[in-house]
Amino acid sequence: GHTSTLDLATYTTASNSKSYVSFLSYTWALIADVDYESECLRWLGSLRIDAWAVYRGILNQKRYPGKFSYLPPSGNGGGTNGTTTEVVMPKVGKPLPEGWISIEDDFMVFWVCNTSHASYDVFSCPMAKMNDGLFHVLIVRSSCSRLRLAEILLKLESGK
Question: What is the spatial distance between Cα 44 and Cα 57, in angstroms, rounded to a whole number?
C-alpha cells in the first residue's frame, strides 16, 4: 500500500454544541433520515434506500430548519499542491470572521462530500478528491418541488 494526504473537516451543531470530525461525508436532513430510518427495510438490500427516499422525500416530506456557515474556497482551489491549510472554526452563536457565509433556511437535503461516490451506485460528487482541500456541499431547500427533488435524487446515480 501507499499513503496519501486526506482532508478533514469539523462540524459543530447548535442544538448540543457537539463537534464532529469527518473525512468522507456529512449528511443531515433527508439523506441522513433515509439512511437511518430505512434500517427497518434492510431485508430489501440496497433497494431500501430508494424505497425510503420515495417515502420520506416525495410522499412524506419534512422540513429541516437550519443555519449553515462556511468559508468559501480560496481562488487557488484548496490544498491541491500538497499544502495544509488549517481554519479555526468560529464558536456557535458568535459572529463569523470575515469571509464566512451563512445560509439560514428550511432545508430538505444537506450533504457534504469529500469523495466522488457515496456508495457503489451513488455518484454524488464526480469532481471530489479526498485530498484537494475542498468539501463539496449539496443543499436542497424545502421550497424545492417534489418533481425537482425526484430529478435531483435520480441524477445522483450518474453524477449529473
Answer: 18
Q: Is the pLDDT of residue 81 over 60?
A: no
> Nearest CA to 64 among 102, 16, 30, 107?
107
Q: Retrieve residue 43's grid coordinates.
A: 431485508
Distance CA 10, CA 79 (A): 17
- Identify the CA nearest to 110 among candidates 25, 16, 1: 25
pLDDT confidence bin for 80, thresholds 50/70/90: very low
* Beta-carbon contacts of residue 7 (< 8 Å; ≥ 6 apart): 23, 79, 114, 130, 131, 132, 133, 134, 135
Q: pLDDT tens, 108-127?
A: 999 888 888 877 778 778 88
Strand 9-12 to 19-22 pairing = antiparallel
